[in-house]
Amino acid sequence: MAESVGVLDDEQGAAEARAALVDKLIADGMITTPVVEAAFRAVPRHLFAPEVSLEAAYADHIVRTKQDKQGVTLSSVSAPWLQARMLESARVGPGMRCLEIGSGGYNAALMAELVGPAGDVTTVDIDPDVTDRARRCLAAAGYDQVRVVLADAEDGLPTSARYDVILVTAQAWDVPPAWTDQLVEGGRLVVPLRLRGLNRTVTFESRGDWLESTSVLYSGFVSMRGIGAHDKPTLALDGERITLVFDDDLPDSPDQLAGVLGTPRVDVDTGVIFPNRVSFETLQLWLATAFDGYCHLAVDKEKTPGLIPPPVGMGHAAVDGASLAYLGGDKIDDDWFRFGVHGFGPEAATLAEAFAAQVRHWNHVHRDGPGPRVTLHPRNTPDSELPGGRVIDRRHSRIVLLWP
Ligand SMILES: C[S@@+](CC[C@H](N)C(=O)[O-])C[C@H]1O[C@@H](n2cnc3c(N)ncnc32)[C@H](O)[C@@H]1O
């Protein structure tokens, strides 16, 4: 008797926690359509996170399900806000055929609700622990119709099936041909991509042999494993206390930068003020577009003489030859800060001024805008057939950032 009362309490508690989460996602603008709302109200998220408390299962955070020996997350049930945003932009509808890359169970169950009985959902994961777990959770929650496949998604699925929606839930560096080949014309590929070192989830719509973005979302995912894994090239400076993280190759002659932080620092005030706790994600993309040598500066907590450590969330930098400049910020008050730039090296002043000029340009032209559109083309597309913009060459694709 006591046990069944406990179960009832739990079910009641889960229903209340789920309702509160959905209300929050609507209030935050993450759920915007009744169909996605209905899916979130229907799927019992706690059955896909049995390892954690009800409170943790229904918090608007990831539930980590697997990590490596260093504590790096290998698999998780993604955060509800991000799942909601991705499903909204994927526009999954009744009868659609969908492929999810990276399994957890919960998101596939949401997709199953959205496609309904006439639709079809397959989820693929490279890790047998993850597929076993996802199968168990899907069965427990009554979503046996979702097909769970163990495979490296790099090669797509060994079937001729084409999908209306392919939704990728691991951080990709490139888009392999299998994903675009398995998409119907007009279909949508939602993929967390590294764009010049910045993590953005891009929703693309297929336009025949190329794709065009319909949304670009600031977000991060666990890294892709297997054939498509890609380590970020890094350059350690100042006895490894500072690391520069690049998107693809290291700059030419990286040795020139060895002593750069020992040179006198040049500070430039941009004059651009910005509210605290507000994302300036389009500035990051603008700097990444503007500078060939764009990179990210990661600083060990221990201070380095001469360096003003970039505030948390900053560290956007550019190198040019033996010089380095990076974005900083000076607090004005509790609500506002001012963007500054710090430069080092023989061309410190020139590079820092150029960097500050780009911050000012963004402030005048792009600050209130939507950010760039992204297009994705097959690797063999000649320059003459690409739209004008910052081209990012990958192994399988050519990605272009186009600013309005
Ligand atoms: C964030 S988790 C997936 C979350 C899940 N979609 C959910 O329900 O919230 C990312 C998953 O991607 C998987 N993954 C990484 N590389 C992969 C690859 N090459 N092919 C298939 N799955 C991969 C990982 O094993 C991990 O389980």
Average predicted local confidence, pLDDT: 93
Q: What is the level-2 CATH architecture name of the largest domain?
A: 3-Layer(aba) Sandwich
Largest sheet: 10 strands, mixed
Strand order of the largest sheet: 5-4-3-6-7-8-9-17-19-18
Q: Treating each run of at least 4 consecutive H or I residues as one helix, how many helices? A: 9
* Morphology: globular
State the helicity in percent bands.
Answer: 25-40%
Overall CATH class of the largest domain? Alpha Beta
The total domain count is 2
> What is CATH's topology name of the largest domain?
Rossmann fold
Order of helices and strands: HHHEEHEHEHEEHEEEEEEHEEEEHEEE
How much strand content do the residues show? 25-35%
Q: CATH superfamily of the largest domain, please?
A: Vaccinia Virus protein VP39
Straight-line distance between termini = 65 Å
Question: Helices and strands in order, then pairings?
Answer:
Blueprint: H1 2-27, H2 34-42, H3 54-57, E1 63-67, E2 73-77, H4 80-90, E3 97-101, H5 106-115, E4 120-125, H6 128-141, E5 147-150, E6 163-168, H7 177-181, E7 183-195, E8 198-206, E9 211-218, E10 234-237, E11 242-245, E12 266-275, H8 281-290, E13 294-299, E14 316-320, E15 323-331, E16 336-344, H9 348-366, E17 373-378, E18 390-393, E19 397-402
The structure holds S-adenosylmethionine.
